Predict the structure of Mitogen-activated protein kinase kinase kinase 15.
Amino acid sequence: MYLTTFYNADVAVVDLSIQLQQSALFYHLGVRESFGMKENILLHNDIDTETTIRIKLSCGNYTFVSYRVVECGSCVATNPATTRITGEEVIDPKQHLTLKLKKLFQDVEVQSKAHMKEKFLADLRKARETYSGEELSKALNNMRKRLDDPNVLSGEVVLNVLISFREIQDYDAMVQLVDDLRTIPTHKNYINTPAIRNLYAFALNRRK
């Protein structure tokens, strides 16, 4: 159960500080990547600069963050490369590990939303290429339900859904989609474009 959760998590944070665990952890990270789950953050307790740099180099393209526990008990992010160059340890007590991770999580959230939108558009294209008639109508109406997720919704997505409904002449669905979005203040900006307004007017004129 734990591995399933790990493999399917939007983002995984893995601490490589214990050497005996590193091989197994890299294996499971590889399994995640084989599933297309590429958002992984690797941590390492920077006790020894050379060891930390060696671990960082072995992590390839993974996001790597080294840290150290300071006297007050807090964890702060470190920069082992700078320490190697200057020969002096440069530790900023204000650079808390939690702040560093928070920023990385925010970046992942943005990337995740972009991925979800791209996945929806890809599924929409596949449905239009694969189905026709009643089957396509059913597929489009099922995909319409996915627009309830704010991470999927965007002006581009709405435009493509409207065009798809227009292709099967489901003008009622076109009008209903725009009307539904109008009722939610935060979603109005998705329909205030000339292209979407034109499609809405077109559907109003064509529906029975």
User: Anything to note?
Assistant: The longest helix spans residues 97-130. The chain has two domains: 3-95, 110-206. Residues 110-206 form one domain.
